[in-house]
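Moderator note: this is an archived Q&A kept for reference. The question asked for a predicted structure of one protein chain; the sequence and the answer are reproduced below.
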Amino acid sequence: MDEPVKDKKNEFITVWVRDPRIKKEDSWHSYVDYEICVHTNSMCFTKKTSCVRRRYREFAWLRQRLQDNAVLISLPEFPSKNPFFSANNGQHVEQRRQGLQEFLEKVLKINILLSDSRLHLFLQTQLDPMEIEACASGQTEYTVADAVHRHATSTRRFPVEEA
């Protein structure tokens, strides 16, 4: 099991990127989405456990927004867009999954990024990037905390931590 992200106050943030699934957009186009599960006792998070599904381009969007908001910070490496990526190639999908997992683990170790509401909405709601932007900039009738409580998905398939 991956080591949880810890700080001096015994807070932890554990994130899993798992369960890649191929989704068909139409007869010619498909993509892979991944389940992101978060388990934490960090005061930075409204919900302590959550699972959502995201695709690669949403991760790329998140990385760009985090970089835009934290210009003095060098963000962790991100799996590059591979022009030869195939959703039907298990090795490609697994390499990307691992890269996305490592990216999120490193992002969650950067304290200043934990204050970015886009990160929380990305990790704990199924809002799309446009909806995340609207909520984060105060253009919705609901707050970020409301969105997390309202739009978080069920955690009944939440991974069990090994002792």
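Archived answer notes: The first strand starts at residue 5 and ends at 6.
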